[in-house]
TrEMBL record:
<feature type="binding site">
    <location>
        <position position="180"/>
    </location>
    <ligand>
        <name>substrate</name>
    </ligand>
</feature>
<dbReference type="GO" id="GO:0005829">
    <property type="term" value="C:cytosol"/>
</dbReference>
<dbReference type="InterPro" id="IPR001267">
    <property type="entry name" value="Thymidine_kinase"/>
</dbReference>
<keyword id="KW-0963">Cytoplasm</keyword>
<dbReference type="GO" id="GO:0071897">
    <property type="term" value="P:DNA biosynthetic process"/>
</dbReference>
<dbReference type="InterPro" id="IPR027417">
    <property type="entry name" value="P-loop_NTPase"/>
</dbReference>
<protein>
    <recommendedName>
        <fullName>Thymidine kinase</fullName>
        <ecNumber>2.7.1.21</ecNumber>
    </recommendedName>
</protein>
<feature type="binding site">
    <location>
        <begin position="23"/>
        <end position="30"/>
    </location>
    <ligand>
        <name>ATP</name>
    </ligand>
</feature>
<dbReference type="GO" id="GO:0046104">
    <property type="term" value="P:thymidine metabolic process"/>
</dbReference>
<keyword id="KW-0547">Nucleotide-binding</keyword>
<keyword id="KW-0479">Metal-binding</keyword>
<keyword id="KW-0808">Transferase</keyword>
<keyword id="KW-0418">Kinase</keyword>
<comment type="subunit">
    <text>Homotetramer.</text>
</comment>
<keyword id="KW-0067">ATP-binding</keyword>
<comment type="similarity">
    <text>Belongs to the thymidine kinase family.</text>
</comment>
<keyword id="KW-0237">DNA synthesis</keyword>
Length: 197
């Protein structure tokens, strides 16, 4: 079970920091990102979300809320663009960070060193269980890492991976969320064995 602390210090203290929210698909990463960003807006902080352009067809949830406190979301092609686009921002959210280039690590450090709170959400592993893109390095440089979990569709335990239910070698299948299922480690091993039969 994940218990979220009421870390109000991070919301009011204007010191730069890096927070990473990682986990499998269906684990609620984006919801947690939005929850933190919304609290920051209530604290009168300027907030903006960046997401990779590749994400336009592959979005777990829209990074926009449907009330008056909607958070502006800007698609960018490279991590460097984030530095070029930010102006008077207190908190930067980055969604689907696994699709960004490795330059994102340096970009996040630069932002945090300049007093910006950076909150990153992304898949920790690809469907093969391998660390995904810049996520492992982002976890390493983060001040705080939160791992969120989906629920295994086979046994109800905490899921560990997004298992792809259709064959294919490509790391990213765009817009095909229905072809993944969250599984725990045990059920994932069973599924792999069954596929080899
Ligand atoms: Zn299971």
């Amino acid at each position: 079970m994940v218990v979220f602390s009421e870390d109000h210090k991070a919301e009011t203290c204007r010191r730069g920091r890096i927070e990473v929210i990682c986990g499998s698909m269906f684990s609620g990463k984006t919801e947690e990102l939005i929850r933190r960003l919304k609290r920051a807006t209530f604290a009168k902080q300027q907030v903006e979300i960046f997401k990779p352009t590749v994400d336009t067809r592959y979005s777990e949830e829209e990074v926009v809320s449907h009330d008056n406190n909607s958070i502006p979301s800007t698609p960018v092609a490279t991590s460097q663009e984030i530095l070029q686009l930010i102006t008077e921002i207190d908190v930067v959210g980055i969604d689907e960070a696994q699709f960004f280039d490795e330059g994102l690590i340096q970009v996040c450090n630069k932002l945090a060193n300049n007093g910006i709170r950076v909150i990153i959400a992304g898949l920790d592993m690809d469907f093969k269980g391998l660390p995904f893109g810049p996520m492992p390095a982002l976890c390493a440089i983060a001040d705080e890492v939160t791992k969120v979990h989906a629920v295994c569709v086979k046994c109800g335990d905490l899921a560990y991976i997004s298992h792809r239910t259709v064959p294919g070698e490509k790391q990213v299948l765009l817009g095909e969320k229905q072809e993944y299922e969250p599984l725990c480690r045990c059920c994932y091993q069973k599924a792999l064995k069954d596929e080899k039969k």
